[in-house]
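Feature request, filed as a ticket because there's no other form

It would be nice if the structure record came with a short human-readable summary line next to the C-alpha cells. Right now we just get the raw output. Example of a typical job, pasted below so the devs can see what we mean:
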Amino acid sequence: MTIKPLIILPNPILRQVSKPVEQVNDELLRLADDMLETMYEAPGIGLAAIQIGVPRRLLVIDVAREGEEKNPQVFINPEIVKSSDERSVYEEGCLSIPEYYAEVERPAAVTVKHIGRDGKEHMVEADGLLATCLQHEIDHLNGVLFIDYISRLKREMVIKKFTKAAKAKAV
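Raw output as currently delivered:
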C-alpha cells in the first residue's frame, strides 16, 4: 500500500465532479487500500478519491473511535437515496483544508446506495458521525467542500488564507 499526497485547497481539482467507476477490479481495490492507508496516516475518518487527484466516485471511511477496532469501509459510486428531515450539527474538518474546522448543519440520517468491494450493490442506513462523514465525502465527489456551507465571508477568508499559503510554498 502507498500513502498518496493530498490535494490541498485552493487546488481547482477539488471542484471537479468525479466520474462513475465502471468496474470493480484489482486496480480499483488497490486504490481503495492506498486511500485507506493515506486516510489513517493523515489522520482522518474519510477520504474521497478526488482528494488524491483521482476524479472517480470512490470514497473510504472509518469512523471507529480511538481504542476501537478499525472498521474500514469502501463506497464505490455512492448515492444518497434518502435524507432525514431531522438535522444535526457537527464540527467538520477536511484533510484538504488542514487545521480548519467549522460547524456544518446536515440531515441527521441518510440512506446511501453504493457498490462494495465485492462488486455488489449495498444500502447503508447511517446516522450520527457516519451520516455526516458520508455526506461530506459524497460532496467531494460532486466538487462541493464543507466550507460551502459556512458564511460567504468566512469561506472567502479561508480560501484567501490557503491561496496565500500555496503561493508562499511555490516560491
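Something like this underneath would help us a lot:
Residues 67 and 162 are 33 Å apart (CA to CA).
The first helix runs from residue 26 to 41.
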